[in-house]
Design a protein that fits this description.
By secondary structure, the protein is α/β, with parallel strands linked by helices. It has a 31-stranded mixed sheet. α30 links the parallel β16 (740-743) and β17.
Length: 1448
């Protein structure tokens, strides 16, 4: 034995001469007859080999046991005759097998190949004994079927005869199956290792039925873990109605076809006695049928025909259809033409069988790969997933494969030490290949060599090819030629080949090396032929990859076109699944440097070409690694990269993966996860893996062992159970960076949780754990929370949707109270969440000493922590509350307690309210939706009366709200001396800086009536001494009676801060009657009433809402003095809006306010206030000496209102200001005795015109202390203003008269100049007729010696100059005139100056203009000379008059 020239994977054996068949040279020359005799004698020595070849070339041949009685040579002659009559292709392929596999003398081998191995040598010179009729092709006992099973006339038979015919056919059917599976020699589509003891894979029944949206059915459904589904469990014979269909889903290599044949064998052996008949069909053969079939044609023409009377037999089968099982293998391979005619004939027949249209009641089972399935499957079809082998099944298979062999122990050791090989063996087909390779390698290699020799799937197949090849001889040409056939089939979607597709030598090569399998193809009555297929589809892909990588016919550009990533999300537009799923993976595996010697040998030592192709494949993978890919393509990429064994490529791929890597809704195997783990080993950064909707095998988590890069691991909606949990528990402790673990929607029981509970403490770095929707029992949940003290970094534990009972919930509450790291326990219906805050101690210290929770430091932390407890809608009752209170009293401070949505009722709410002061609740207690009644409200109020920290209580029976809000606990009481000093210091503070301490009691929408008030006030009495109280009785039914009763009870409640009586159905009289509370309640400062919206609010002083929480502040002198000062300075206000203010109502209101302490502000608002009502209100003003402000806001007033308000100035001397704006807003300010005199009056935007001027001036003239009048924004115009200026001397104004925005022109300005002499008290007047539109006149208390006049933008025309000069001449007291942009040039100024006649004195004229032309001194001089010439008697005018011209 010497090394093989093509590498270290196999051994090369010299072929010896021992065992050769010695022949007489003379006998070999006798001709073909002697050659035939030599062939018969040769085959007689190995009858088992000949039987195997008979099964291969004639799949339908029955090796009849009756032939065993014949002479061995006669039996061989019969078998050779059957082979010879099949035709030249079959005979030549057989002869090639003889020469390849048997020890044939060289001279005989030459004669056989030259005589029988070519077309020329195929003759009928074999004698009569070598000739057979064509009927020998048919199965023993199988007559040639009729032309059409349904065309023969129906003969009347009695039931007895029909039954006998049916029994005879059923016996024939079972006998045929027995004969087919009697021999352990593979054939007729059976797997290569069918002679091995069958090891069933894992079967899991899906929890959801099929759905058929838009003509497509996705088979990637959720898988239920638990007890394995046995073969007998696949069929539920108790269901007798409707179509009964089972779909067996499994990825390639899982053993679907093997299981189908296993069912046939078990039925033939009598195990499936629930079925009288079983038929097995393969879609790869049915695809060849192009015509529509009837059920009888399907059963009899394509499977097994009865000996007679097809109709009678079919009638029996139809009548007993519930005992008929039809198995269709390879549904994913079914051709689905999408033409106008709809689905093909085979799918049409299959659909009718599934839906019960044909052969109703029969059982149908179909096998398929996951992905898109035909729409013909009914929605209620049962789905069963085939999940391959787990560890025990792999070991069982290896034990059977190496049974009674010395290498068995070595093979088991190799699998235990080689994790990669063990993960590959999860696929049954690969497990068989691995065993074959180990059987070949173990005798010649040292233990442990499988790690180097079998690292990938590709090299596993490569070693299989070497193991099946003759020792020392690798048939390179045949391999490449067979690979070309495989590639051509993949490209055309062809998996079945005929003799015309493959040359006889290649058929013989495939048969010899177990690369091809054969089967009988029936397409109709009397139409059958032998078909060939590769042993497995993945083998076809591997051989195609070999051809692409090693054949000189393929260049690297063509090669790279095959390196693509196939998504496992099958699109609805694809007719069927792709046949080349693993081709890119095999190409990537062959790109490994380890495979180069093997490929170079196949390529006739053309190593450069092979290297270039390998580099091209790696380059394509590098480009794919940097792209953003979906989950399925990420898995495919990882497979390809892992097969290359290139560390640099693996590192690039790992680093390019996103931080959050989701895998959604496609099946994943243990091999997939193992490959992903291998790639992640090359990654430095952490990663999040999210498996959502992916069917996973129970042992999949074992593939994640040692994956330290995983930071978040989530399995959502996986119907995985205890086996999955057990496998996961083995992997978790090995993930050193795992922070988040999610396992949601599974079927884990106590057994599975026990494994996880043991594993979780070994993961101290965990920060979040989720067990949502796992249907965990109460004890299981309690077992889980026991690990909380052992997870020092845990921040969240999610146990939602697990249906626990109340007693368990209370136990969980105890855990939350006692565990020092728990900060929140939230339970609401299905939700159950623990939120935790890790302590400040180091994790390492906590790990070394887990018992530290009892230490002083831990106890101190427990006391300082605050716990939030939310037990919402948990069906808690009174006795549960008692237990909860006792538990919480022993616990830490509580941030929040939420018991809303339970069944506490009045008693439970009372107990919680009483315990509130002892539970140290810092923020909130929620007892909403607990059935509290009106009677229970009183109890709750009494219970919280002594709670110092209560800040707000909101009870609304209509909205089912009961919420307690708490403030922080006050500090310890200071000493008396410190307290007195502090209170005295309050006098030095502003009111806004006073300390706040108040509570709100909101009893809204509780249906409270007047009869409840007395009891309520008694219950509230205890709360008043704890601080200023805000009461809210809004939304009840107190009515007028309740309002009156409450007004009497309020003094007994002490100093309230506010009282809300909104929405209580009060009438106007009751509302107005509340004003008397100003005189009875010292704390009341503001009464806000909106009558229509029923908003009624009584408020205290905002700036002094809290004097001191104890209510004992008035006991101190400083405090009492402060309170008295505050009451005198802060005004009270009554705001009445949305109310019909009629004279009687106003009269009553004012009468009610007579005794109100002042100062008082009265704010009224209504849609419209009549003149009578306004007059009534103004007449009542003298009766309210404490009134400081009267405001009518957003209230419509008539044109008479300005005169009524003006008249008030003389009737009520206390009025210091009247302001009426736009006849909608009126304000009257009143003076106190200490204030100075002086009245301001404003009527802006009141539509006043000329006709109103005299009346208004007459009313204003009666006011002796009028300081300011504002008549701006009215409609006076020039005539109205002239009238006003004429009346101006009668009005005693001492300040400002504003006439702006009254639409005046130059006429008003000129008339103002002309009027100035008659108004000696005018100090200054300014007019702007531009955009500003101002017209203001300033008065002084006495006659003013000098007056100032400013005219701006008046646009005087030349004709106005003379009037202006006349007015200036008459206004002898005018000392300054400023003209701004009045359109007067130097000529007009000269004329003006020449016309002005004034006595000697100072007169200042300023012309502020923006003209570009400037007045020069010569021009001014000429102007002045002209003035002198005309006024000779005033020769010193230039000396006595100052002419100042300001030019801008």
């Amino acid at each position: 034995m010497r090394p093989s020239p093509w590498g270290p994977w196999s051994t090369y054996h010299e072929r010896g001469d021992q065992g050769r068949l010695l022949m007489d040279p003379v006998g070999l020359q006798l001709g073909n007859k002697n050659l035939w005799s030599c062939l018969v004698r040769l085959l007689t020595k190995d009858p088992e080999w000949l039987n195997a070849k008979m099964k291969f070339f004639l799949p339908n041949t029955d090796l009849d046991s009756r032939n065993e009685t014949l002479d061995p040579e006669q039996r061989v002659i019969l078998q050779l005759n059957k082979l010879h009559v099949q035709g030249s292709d079959t005979w030549q392929s057989f002869i090639h097998c003889v020469c390849m596999q048997l020890e044939v003398p060289l001279d005989l081998e030459v004669l056989l190949l030259s005589t029988f191995g070519c077309d020329d040598g195929f003759t009928s010179q074999l004698g009569a004994e070598g000739k057979r009729q064509p009927e020998s092709q048919l199965h023993h006992g199988l007559k040639r079927p009729h032309q059409s099973c349904g065309s023969s006339p129906r003969r009347k038979q009695c039931k007895k005869q029909q039954l006998e015919l049916a029994k005879k056919y059923l016996q024939l059917l079972r006998t045929s199956a027995q004969q087919r599976y009697r021999s352990r020699i593979p054939g007729s589509g059976q797997p290569h290792a069918f002679h091995q003891v069958y090891v069933p894979p894992i079967l899991r029944r899906a929890t959801a039925s099929l759905d058929t949206p838009e003509g497509a059915i996705m088979g990637d459904l959720k898988v239920e873990d638990g007890t394995d589904v046995s073969i007998s469990d696949l069929f539920n014979t108790r269901v007798n109605k409707g179509p009964r269909v089972t779909v067996l889903l499994g990825k390639a290599g899982m053993g679907k076809t093997t299981l189908a044949h296993r069912l046939c064998q078990k039925w033939a052996e009598g195990h499936l006695d629930c079925f009288q008949a079983l038929f097995l069909f393969e879609f790869r053969q049915l695809n060849l049928i192009t015509r529509f079939l009837t059920p009888s044609e399907l059963l009899f023409d394509l499977y097994l025909s009865p000996e007679s009377d097809h109709d009678a037999v079919f009638q029996y089968l139809e009548k007993n259809a519930d005992q008929v099982l039809l198995i269709f293998d390879g549904l994913d391979e079914a051709l689905q033409p999408m033409g106008p005619d709809g689905p093909g004939p085979v799918l049409t027949l299959f659909s009718d069988l599934c839906h019960g249209t044909l052969l109703p009641g029969c059982r149908v089972m179909a096998t398929s790969r996951p992905g898109k399935l035909p729409a013909c499957l009914p929605a209620e079809a049962a789905m069963v997933h085939m999940l391959g082998f787990d560890g025990p099944r792999v070991e069982e298979y290896v034990n059977h494969f190496f049974s009674a062999q010395p290498s068995r122990e070595g093979a088991l050791v190799e699998l235990q030490t080689n994790g990669r090989l063990r993960s590959l063996c999860a696929v049954p087909a690969l497990c068989q290949v691995a065993c074959l390779c180990l059987h070949h390698l173990l005798p010649d290699h040292a233990p442990g060599q499988s790690v180097a020799l079998l690292p990938t799937r590709t090299q596993l197949y490569m070693q299989m090819v070497l193991a099946l090849s003759p020792p020392g001889h690798l048939p390179t040409t045949s391999l490449l030629d067979l690979g070309e056939v495989a590639l051509r089939g993949l490209e055309t979607g062809k998996v079945i080949f005929y003799a015309k597709d493959i040359t006889p030598p290649l058929i013989a090569f495939g048969a010899t090396h177990s690369l091809l399998t054969s089967f009988c193809i029936r397409t109709g009555p009397g139409h059958q032929q032998t078909g060939y297929a590769f042993t497995h589809l993945s083998l076809q892909e591997f051989l195609a990859a070999l051809h692409l990588m090693a054949s000189p016919k393929v260049n690297k550009d063509t090669l790279t076109q095959y390196v693509t990533l196939h998504s496992r999300w099958v699109q609805r537009t694809k007719a069927r699944l792709c046949l080349s799923d693993h081709l890119p993976t095999f190409l990537a595996g062959l790109a490994s440097c380890t495979c180069r010697p093997f490929l170079s040998h196949l390529a006739q030592d053309n190593e450069d070409c092979v290297g270039a192709k390998q580099a091209a494949v790696v380059q394509v993978l590098k480009k794919l690694a940097t792209r953003k890919l979906t989950g399925p393509k990420v898995v495919e990429l990882c497979h390809c990269v892992d097969e290359t064994q290139e560390p640099e490529l693996a590192s690039l791929t790992a680093q390019s993966l996103p931080y959050q890597l989701p895998f959604h809704n496609f099946p994943l195997t243990c091999t997939d996860l193992a490959t992903l783990t291998n790639i992640l080993e090359h990654r430095e950064a952490p990663i999040h893996l999210d498996f959502d909707g992916c069917p996973l095998e129970p042992h999949c988590p074992e593939a994640l062992v040692g994956c330290g890069q995983i930071e978040n691991l989530s399995f959502k909606s996986r119907k995985c159970g205890d086996a999955f949990a057990e496998a996961l528990s083995k992997s978790l402790p090995t993930m050193g960076r795992l922070q988040m673990l999610g396992l949601a929607g599974s079927k884990i029981t106590a057994r599975g949780i026990s494994h996880l509970v043991k594993a979780l403490p070994l993961c101290p770095q965990l920060e979040e754990v989720s067990f949502r929707d796992n249907q965990l029992s109460d004890q299981v949940v309690l077992n889980i929370v026991e690990v909380l003290p052992h997870l020092p970094r845990l921040r969240k534990l999610d146990l939602s949707s697990n249906s626990i009972c109340v007693s368990t919930l209370l136990c969980l509450a105890r855990v939350a109270v006692t565990c020092p790291t728990v900060r929140t326990l939230q339970a609401r219906e299905a939700d159950l969440i623990f939120l935790l805050s890790p302590p400040t101690e180091k994790t390492a210290e906590l790990q070394r000493a887990p018992d530290l929770q009892e230490s002083d430091g831990q106890r101190k932390g427990a006391q300082s922590r605050s716990l939030t407890l939310r037990l919402q809608k948990c069906q808690l009752q009174v006795h549960d509350v008692e237990a909860l209170i006792a538990l919480l009293q022993e616990g830490p401070h509580l941030e929040e307690v939420d018991l809303s949505g339970n069944q506490l009722e009045d008693e439970g709410c009372r107990l919680m309210a009483e315990a509130a002061s002892q539970l140290h609740i810092a923020r909130k207690l929620d007892l909403s939706d607990n059935g509290l009644s009106v009677a229970g409200v009183h109890c709750v109020l009494r219970a919280v009366s002594a709670c110092w920290t209560l800040a707000e209580l909101h009870i609304s029976l209509q909205h089912k709200t009961v919420v307690f809000m708490f403030a922080q606990e006050p500090e310890e009481q200071k000493g008396p001396q410190e307290r007195t000093a502090f209170l005295d210091s309050l006098m030095l503070q502003m009111p806004s800086k006073l300390p706040l301490s108040s509570r709100r009691m909101r009893l809204t929408h509780c249906g409270l009536q007047a009869k409840h008030l007395e009891q309520l006030c008694k219950a509230l009495g205890g709360s008043c001494h704890l601080g200023h109280l805000h009461l809210d009785f809004s939304g009840n039914a107190l009515g007028d009676e309740g309002a009156a009763q409450l007004a009497q009870l309020l003094p007994g409640l002490g100093a309230l801060q506010s009282l809300n009586l909104s929405e209580n159905g009060l009438s106007l009289d009751a509302v107005l009657g509340l004003a008397q509370c100003f005189s009875t309640l010292q704390w009341l400062f503001h009464l806000d009433i909106s009558f229509e919206s029923q908003h009624i609010l009584l408020r205290g002083d905002k700036t002094g809402r809290d004097t001191w929480a104890t209510g004992s502040l008035p006991d101190f002198p400083a405090a009492a003095e402060f309170l008295g000062f505050r009451q005198r300075c802060i005004p009270r206000s009554l705001c009445l809006s949305e109310c019909p203010l009629e004279p009687p109502s106003l009269t009553r209101l004012c009468a009610t306010l007579k005794d109100c302490p002042g100062p008082l502000e009265l704010q009224l608002s209504c849609e419209f206030l009549s003149d009578q009502s306004l007059e009534t209100l103004l007449d009542c003003l003298p009766q309210l000496p404490q009134l400081s402000l009267l405001q009518l806001s957003q209230t419509g007033l008539s044109l008479k209102s300005p005169f009524l308000l003006a008249n008030t100035l003389s009737l009520c001397p206390r009025v210091k200001k009247v302001d009426l704006r736009s006849l909608h807003h009126a304000t009257l300010h009143f003076r106190s005795n200490e204030e100075e005199e002086g009245v301001c009056c404003g009527f802006t935007g009141c539509s006043l015109s000329q006709e109103h001027v005299e009346s208004l001036c007459w009313l204003l003239s009666k006011c002796k202390d009028l300081s300011q009048v504002d008549l701006s924004a009215n409609l006076l115009g020039d005539s109205g203003l002239r009238c006003l200026l004429e009346c101006l001397p009668q009005v005693p104004i001492s300040g400002l008269l504003d006439l702006s925005h009254n639409s005046v022109s130059q006429e008003s300005a000129l008339y103002l100049v002309e009027t100035l002499p008659s108004c000696p008290r005018v100090r200054e007047a300014s007019v702007n007729l531009g955009s500003e539109q101002s017209f203001r006149i300033h008065f002084s208390g006495e006659d003013q010696a000098g007056k100032t006049l400013r005219l701006s933008e008046c646009s005087f025309r030349p004709e106005h100059v003379s009037r202006l000069a006349t007015g200036l001449s008459q206004s002898l007291q005018l000392t300054e005139l400023t003209l701004t942009q009045c359109c007067l040039g130097w000529k007009q100024l000269a004329i003006l100056l020449s016309l002005v006649g004034r006595p000697a004195g100072l007169f200042s004229l300023r012309d502020s203009t923006r003209h570009t032309e400037k007045l020069s001194f010569p021009r001014l001089e000429a102007c002045a000379l002209g003035f002198k010439k005309r006024k000779k008697e005033r020769k010193k005018v230039l000396e006595d008059t100052e002419l100042r011209t300001k030019i801008n």
